[in-house]
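Example is below:
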Amino acid sequence: MNPHVEEAAIAAGLAATAQGADVARKVYARLEFVAALLRASLGTEEGSRLVWREGERIRIQALHHTVTIGRDAGCEVVLPSPRVSRRHVVIEVREGEFLLRDLGSANGTCVNGGVVPDSGRVLADGDVIDVAGVPVVFFRAQ
């Protein structure tokens, strides 16, 4: 990890600890997520991937083929939130591009704050996919 990032993380953790255990837990959980994002982005020579939080756990899904995201256990990426549709979105691998399409979900899908059109959206490295309030980060292989 970059030494300046590490120093900032330690400082943030210490400041949060001084404010109490609840604040410290929240800050450390976010720092853990940021660290996982950094590790995932640095490891993209191994392939494209998705990163998201599930409770206290960090999840990473490699993208070598079409991936469906939803609440249903049959999806490759299962997001247990009640706001997520059973089959919410699909990411299709087409000629080296990653096309995200909403599957008619009840609560919609956004990428970097913009609503995904019916025709879909090609993902770029670092895009944040909002799946009914659950952020999923896309990292493209280098």
Q: What stands out?
A: Helices lie at 3-19, 21-42.
